[in-house]
Amino acid sequence: xxxxxxxxxxxxxxxxxxxxxxxxxxxxxxxxxxxxxxxxxxxxxxxxxxxxxxxxxxxxxxxxxxxxxxxxxxxxxxxxxxxxxxxxxxxxxxxxxxxxxxxxxxxxxxxxxxxxxxxxxxxxxxxxxxxxxxxxxxxxxxxxxxxxxxxxxxxxxxxxxxxxxxxxxxxxxxxxxxxxxxxxxxxxxxxxxxxxxxxxxxxxxxxxxxxxxxxxxxxxxxxxxxxxxxxxxxxxxxxxxxxxxxxxxxxxxxxxxxxxxxxxxxxxxxxxxxxxxxxxxxxxxxxxxxxxxxxxxxxxxxxxxxxxxxxxxxxxxxxxxxxxxxxxxxxxxxxxxxxxxxxxxxxxxxxxxxxxxxxxxxxxxxxxxxxxxxxxxxxxxxxxxxxxxxxxxxxxxxxxx
Length: 401
Ligand SMILES: *Cc1c(COP(=O)(O)O)cnc(C)c1O
Known about the structure:
Layout: H1 13-19, H2 61-74, E1 78-82, H3 85-96, E2 102-106, H4 111-121, E3 127-131, H5 136-142, E4 148-154, H6 166-175, E5 179-183, H7 188-191, E6 201-205, E7 219-223, H8 242-253, H9 259-269, H10 272-291, E8 298-300, H11 310-316, E9 323-327, H12 331-340, E10 345-346, E11 356-358, E12 379-383, H13 389-400
Parallel strand pairs: 2-3, 2-4, 4-5, 5-6, 10-11
Antiparallel strand pairs: 1-7, 6-7, 8-9, 9-12, 11-12
Helix pairs in contact: 1-2, 2-9, 3-4, 3-8, 10-13, 12-13
This protein binds pyridoxal-5'-phosphate.
């Protein structure tokens, strides 16, 4: 039998996305990993596992293919695939935090992340402080020495597209003995590499750009090479390795990605680079169109020079992504725009090939109304898809007319 294994670590981004973890199947030569729709594996004598597979919560070859590809594209040492982005976050938080610990979170975090930290981990004794993560001094002031064990970063944020300086925040977290986590869902590993900038772990809702086709819910944790648990914490396997702790918790609580979901997500990941190029160019064209439109009072897109995070985004990202938010002066006008678009479908979620429009105040961010995370009620959020840009611009034009 030929040896089809190859080390892809020094290959370019798209080559890694397509080939890492996807060596041709040793039995048939299939060029895509099969969907191993199986729960258990025959052992060659008691404990005689073939390639370590024993039971599919602990490991499944289709999931392994996805996890190896995710580690390769983020430049991490290990990746873990989950049944949703929030399941990935939940597992990482449990692996790295204990009652009495404190977390610094963005004051415009993804609503579900905030709900998890505040309303699930809060009652279990983990405190949090929401701050403006784009202001390094504010983050430094919020860190409580000896008690803050994690700084949670989202950049760009949802839906206000705030940008924060990952390298500066990583240095702050490291000095405090805390771990720095970056939710890289909006930027994707194609546009932003948080581990190379000093983050300890990256989380994804792979439901969004990585899956990319609005047909699967999933999540991931990717751990940086040599990343450690917060200072002073010994993990469940007796080491300080963050990856070992996440691996233990993934198996212990079991919110793993199923084989078909892993396969769909891997299929999406392979085309991430070409999709992101088109998302970025379409979003830039849409942002420029909206900026010139008389019915629009503000356009928020990190690719525009007047965006407060433009300078940092330009150095930290290789493109500005596919999310554009804008304001139209009143809640009624915002709801009108959402009701009138035809190409942009009115729906939650983001990152798929089709364009979506939504009203964060009443949809994705309804759960944070009245909190520090409340968003303006005249805000409209777009997930700009990869359709023909002329059709997207024309659709927004008629909806705003
Ligand atoms: C959607 C999303 C999540 C949650 O992921 P699910 O797959 O919906 O559980 C977390 N962070 C960001 C930035 C998201 O957009």
